[in-house]
Structure formats: C-alpha cells, structure tokens
Amino acid sequence: MSDQDPAAWMTIGELARRTGVSTDLLRAWERRYGLLAPRRTTTNRRLYSGSDALRVSLMQRYLAAGVPAAAAAERVCATTITVDVGAGPAIAPHEVAAAHAELRTALDAFEETAAQRVLERLFAAHSRLAVVRDVLLPYLRELGDRWEAGSIDVAQEHFASTFAEARFMAMARGWDRGPGPRALLACPAGERHTFGLTAFGIALHARGWRIVYLGADTPAAMVAAAADTVPPDLVVLAAVSPARFDDERAALRTLATRWSCRFAGAGASDATSARLGGRHLAEDPITAATIVAAG
After folding, report:
1. For residue 152, how far is the Cα from the chain centroid?
2. Are 198 and 168 a contacting pair, CB within 8 Å?
3. Smallest Cα–Cα separation from 267: which of 287, 234, 238, 235?
4. Which residues does 162 contact at the CB level (< 8 Å), separation at least 6?
5. What is the pLDDT along the chain (295 residues), one digit of tens a residue?
6. No. of H helices and E strands in the chain?
7. Angle at alpha carbon of residue 158, lines to 153 and 160, rounded to 5°
8. CATH of domain 93-171
9. Is the separation of the CB atoms in 107 and 160 below 8 Å?
10. Is CATH 1.10.260.40 the classification given to domain 12-77?
11. Nearest 5°: phi and psi at 79?
C-alpha cells in the first residue's frame, strides 16, 4: 500500500484528526497490538508517520467488515505499508543530456532566464527531487570538472553556481517548520561545497523532518553550540575532501559522543565515519534522505 501525500510526521492529536479515531483508542491499539510505530524525538515526544495513518485506516476497514479487533490488528501488522514520497522515476538519459546541453548554453552565456525556462519545463514534467537528483547535481559535478579543465572561466563557474544555489535555497524555504524530527546540517571547517548537503536537506524535509542548516565552513565547536541550542535528532556533516574531517577529528569524535552523527560527501567513507564515531551516508543525497527517514 502507498500514499502519494508526503505525510509529514504528526502528533497523536493530528493523527486522530486525520483518521477520525480518538486518541484514547489510538493509544489502546498501540499498547495492545503494536499497531502503530511512532518515532521518539530526543525530548521523548512521540511522532507518527503517514504509514501509521494508513495502518489506522486499514484497521478501520477490517473492523467495519466485522473482523474482531485482535484479528484485524494482526492482519494490519502483517501488511507491508509504505508512504511513497520518493523522488519519482528516473529522468530518461536522453532528457537529462538535452537539459544539460541547454543549461550549459544558457549559463555559459550568462542567460539566467533561458536557464530558468529549462528548469520550469523539467519541474512541470517530473518531481522536484528527481530533477535535483538526475539533472542538477550531475550538472554541478560536470560544472566543476569543466572549470578544473579550463573549459570555462571563473565568471562562468560563479554565475552557474549562484544560479543553482538560488534555486536550491528557494526549494528550502520553510524547511524548519513541522512537528517532525530535527536534523542539523553543516559542512566542516574549510569545506565550501554545499550542494549535496542542501539537496539532502530538501529531500529530508520532504519526508517530514525539520532542518537546521548551518552551511559551509562550520567548525565542529560551532556545530556543537548549535546542537546545544536546538537539540537535533541527527547531525549530518558533509565534505568533498577527506582532510576536512581529519582536520577536526578530535572535535568531531566528541560531537559524535553526544549526538547521532552521519558523515557524507566524497570525503566520507565507512572507515572515516567509524573513526569519527558516526555512520556513513554513501548514497546520493536524495536516496540517503530516504534511508534516514525510514529509520
């Protein structure tokens, strides 16, 4: 079963309003049958997902059909239920290639409006997370390669990067709102490549999480200070260079003793993450957000 609504995390009161089942009965179903699977935040607050709402709806259907409560709950718990808020199907390679060619032509010539039209066409046909995953992030990697190879100049690279950054941050508006778990995102000291981290935050927010975004070049001490102010359920640090993690190894290890930490980006690895006391997010940012949200 799947639900096309993103179904952000909700309190039991919100779940009751959505399903029409009283909070007392929801608690009873959770206690007696394990029907619901709430997530607990660092403050021990219970939050319920779209999958929980679907379980309640299915439970109601069985009860309406005359199935006893215990048997109905057993059937619901045996049913695989997921909430589909993923990035959507992959964009066809030929469409990606065409979009990249159009973006190169427009942005190399400093034509922002033409580049925006390319994105508008893509967003009209595909989910925004699919566009980020399949078009924008690969384009930005290619942009860096072209700059290193000398095929574009600094002005062209800066213009294209600024264009992409503005679009990413537009998608990030309001990502601190909602009742869901909180993720604190940052790049370690000296790291200025933020696109992957921002994309991860956008995707994680789409799955009901609240985002506190510190951005580029954030020393571990500043990450810790922010975590003390707004206690996160998860801290994610991303870097392109392994040196960014090594430079603050002791401080990052201390951070990981206090908070659940994940390490991402080309500079992270299973070994590096283990040394720092956290876990490695090896997948692309959109897939990584799906895995984190799934618990």
Report:
1. 32
2. yes
3. 238
4. none
5. 333 333 457 889 989 998 899 999 999 999 999 999 888 777 778 888 877 888 898 898 889 889 899 999 988 887 655 554 455 678 999 999 999 999 999 999 999 999 999 999 998 888 889 999 999 999 999 999 999 999 999 999 999 999 999 999 999 998 988 777 899 999 999 999 999 999 999 999 988 889 999 999 999 999 999 999 999 999 999 999 999 999 999 999 999 999 999 999 999 999 999 999 999 999 999 989 988 887 6
6. 15, 7
7. 100
8. 1.10.1240.10
9. yes
10. no
11. -95, 130
Please list, in sequence order, all residues whose beta carbon lies within 8 angstroms of the beta carbon of residue 4, skipping any fewer than 6 positions away.
84
146 membership: H or E segment, kind and range? helix 137-149
* DSSP code of residue 188: P
d(CA 162, CA 139): 13
Distance CA 267, CA 232 (A): 23
Contact criterion met (CB below 8 Å) for 227 and 295: no
* Numbered ranges of CATH 1.10.1240.10 in the chain: 93-171
For residue 126, give the amino acid letter: H
- In the chain, list all ranges with CATH 1.10.1660.10: 12-77
Which pairing describes strands 210-215 and 182-186: parallel, antiparallel, or unpaired? parallel
pTM: 0.74
Q: Beta-strand (E) ranges in 163-287?
A: 182-186, 210-215, 234-238, 261-264, 279-281
Q: What is the identity of the amino acid at 157?
A: E
Give the CA distances from residue 250 to residues 191, 223, 240, 247, 281, in Å, rounded to whole numbers and listed in that order. 17, 14, 19, 8, 20
CATH topology of domain 182-293: Rossmann fold (3.40.50)
Kindly tell me the sign of the dihedral angle through the C-alpha atoms of 99, 105, 108, 112: negative
Task: Name 239's bridge partners.
Answer: none
Do the Cβ atoms of 18 and 51 come closer than 8 Å? Answer: no
Bridging pattern class, strands 234-238 and 182-186: parallel
